[in-house]
Amino acid sequence: MSLLDELSARQIASGVQAGEFSAEEVCRASLDAIASRDAELHACLQVLEELALAKARELDRDRAAGRALPPLAGVPLAVKDNMNLIGSRTTCGSRMLEDYESPYTATCVQRMLDAGCLPIAKTNMDEFAFGSSTETSHFGKTANPWDAERVPGGSSGGSAAAVAAGEVTLALGSDTGGSIRQPAAFCGVVGLKPTYGAVSRYGVVAFGSSLDQVGPFGRRVEDVALAMNALLGEGHDPMDATSQDCPVDFLEHLEDPVEGLRVGIIADFIDAEGLSGEVRSAVLGAAEALADQGAELVDVSLPNVADSISAYYVIGPCEAFSNLARFDGVRYGYQEPGCATLAEQSAKSRAHGFGAEAKRRQMLGAYLLSSGVYERYYHKAQKARTLITKSYERAFEEVDVLLLPSSPRTAFKFGEISDPTQMYLSDMFTISSNIAGNGSVSVPLGLGEDSGLPVAVQLQGPAFKDRRLLTFARAVERGFEAEGRVAPAFAGKGGEL
After folding, report:
1. Distance (Å, rounded) from C-alpha 381 to C-alpha 46?
2. What's the rounded mean pLDDT across residues 251-259?
3. 277-322 pLDDT, tens per residue?
4. What pLDDT is recorded for position 65?
5. What are phi and psi of 340, to 5 degrees?
6. What's the pTM value of the predicted model, to 2 decimals?
7. Is residue 154 assigned to a domain?
8. Domains of the chain: total
9. Burial of 220 (0-12, 13-18, 19+ CB in 10 A)
10. Under a CB-based contact definition with an 8 Å cutoff, are residues 215 and 191 in contact?
């Protein structure tokens, strides 16, 4: 087993700071784990060995000189490949950006590096984050560490798989409609989508600008809390107009009791069509674990949330069409050779540079923004968004958090879902949180009795109450640890290190 399979982010940083092992030793353990395990998984698109070792040696020199080390010193980090990092390519899983070299470093990535993380790898993803399975990547699919014939979820599937397989301790993903929480559920790790505006998106290639949010993956709730401290530590980012100042210590109340606090249960979600029996049992089990710790279970309703998927697949494609218009083969992206005119070059570059799902989303967005259609659909979608947000506001007047599934089922097999509409339903429980902008977290609850695959629950909280959200996540984790049901740290089948 690797060093990373046994130690949390806090334990790694403490060990490096105490001299129990060096940051370079941790770095090499991470690189060795990737070398041993990633041939089967394909979680990483680019391994950043030189960058990672340079950072590790810098930390070791600082320790030898007696200088204080940052809080995440020596913790291996993977970064979804839609986030810029100097010294790496940023491909977004697309042929369009196959050779694009990052000209600067995204704020979220820089803050993790400033906290001491080692930049180990850039991870695979659905092309431009369009997907729920990491099958649409131009560079090939990523496998689920629990079963290589199954998807890891998407679009941040590479980041979730890398953490689940013990290749890294922390990873960053982006979530536009569930792209952190759904792969976290499929791979058996913790995945947090913070409140919209909590984490800077500067340097992250945009999909849906009013929906996108960056968040961390970890094997433990505490790991995610430590990552959030790093991501929010320096406050507002002037490079992102949506960035908010959130001076919160996510560790401060992590172990607080939940006694007397209220947990909302949504009957329509528990009995939803398509929800598997073992996922339903997981949600009910999590509710029982919270009730055993003194939380009050309250039935609530979200009357407008059923419209979330419809609203999302209007707003999302419209914003994607706008954001991806820049990739025309002239200023950015793949450039088709041998074209006689600028118009031909742009048309052929886009036709051959984008994959099928990226084209589908952009064509849908172009149609929805066309004259006569815009008023009929886009305006209504924005009105639905307002109603959905108000439904959440009313619910959070009654309860502190909501408890619901992360995904309707466990990880499915490659090629099992070919209908795009059915694939979109994979995010049926996650999209509403992006529409409303509030924070959500997926917490693993061990393995399903029927499938033997990871099952998980989702907690949703009010906007900018993400610290309290993690308090509840930790309570769920604590309740299941007592029963020995939390998934083991290493899910892969690679050799000993």
Report:
1. 38
2. 97
3. 999 999 999 999 999 999 999 999 999 999 999 999 999 999 999 9
4. 98
5. -85, -30
6. 0.96
7. yes
8. 1
9. buried
10. yes
Q: How far does Cα 317 stand from its chain's mean position?
A: 20
Task: Give the full edge-to-edge strand order of the sheet including 190-193.
Answer: 44-47, 118-123, 76-80, 170-175, 213-218, 190-193, 440-447, 454-460, 401-405, 262-266, 296-300
* Residue-by-residue DSSP string for 393-442: HHHHHH-SEEEEESSSSSPPBTTS---HHHHHGGGTTTHHHHHHT--EEE
Q: Tally the C-alpha atoms within 13 A of residue 417's C-alpha that lie toward its C-beta.
A: 20
- We report the CATH number of the domain holding residue 227 as 3.90.1300.10
Q: What gap in Å lies between CA 150 and CA 129, rounded to an integer?
A: 19
Residue 404, CB-side half-sphere exposure with 13 Å CA sphere = 29
* The two structure tokens encoding residue 25: 């030793």
Domain-located, residue 12: yes
Residue 326: Cβ within 10 Å count: 12
In a domain, 9, yes or no: yes
Tokens of 150: 């199954």
The answer to whether the bond into 156 is cis (omega within 30° of 0) is no
pLDDT, mean over the chain:
95
Sequence letter at residue 189 = V
Percentage with pLDDT > 90 across the chain: 91
Q: Give the gyration radius of the chain's Cα atoms.
A: 21
Could you tell me which residues come within 8 angstroms of residue 252 by beta carbon, excluding any fewer than 6 positions away? 467
Q: Which domain holds residue 196?
A: 3-255
Predicted pLDDT of residue 482: 67
List the catalytic residues. Answer: 80, 155, 179
- Residue-wise pLDDT tens digits, 49-90: 999 999 999 999 999 999 999 999 999 999 999 999 999 999
Determine the 3-state secondary structure of 298 from DSSP: strand
Count CA within 13 A, CB hemisphere, residue 367: 8
Q: Measure the CA–CA gap between 357 and 137, rounded to whole angstroms.
A: 10
| DSSP H/E element including 230 | helix 221-232
* 91 falls within a domain: yes
pLDDT of residue 495: 30
pLDDT tens-digit readout, 378-406: 999 999 999 999 999 999 999 999 999 99
Determine the average pLDDT of the residues in 219-246: 96
pLDDT of residue 488: 43
